[in-house]
Amino acid sequence: MTHVPTRRVLVVEDDENLRVAVTAELGGNGLAVDTAGDLADAAEAVAAPPTVAAVRALAAQVDHAVWAAPRDPDGGDTARAWATVDTIRRGLARRGWRARLRAALDHRTLRAP
């Protein structure tokens, strides 16, 4: 078994929470997604271009943190990723009150990540 530094594991767990948060947001808007690529592709169906760009940025940030980071990500990496999640949520919120209500009552958005 390969030893993984504890700090790195905590960051990966946080990245998983990011993925779950965005998956739940998009799922509440009627989209089933499994991978970061699915997230970006699915967002195109329901969101404006700036929101889609934010989903693609988040996918790249998570991929980099999990697979390509030559160092342990710092707190700034995590803060930038969560700021991107906030951008995605704001973009989805612009879809109108019916879509927001439907998303808010979807079972995938009612449970904690």
Automatic annotation (TrEMBL):
<dbReference type="InterPro" id="IPR011006">
    <property type="entry name" value="CheY-like_superfamily"/>
</dbReference>
<protein>
    <recommendedName>
        <fullName>Response regulatory domain-containing protein</fullName>
    </recommendedName>
</protein>
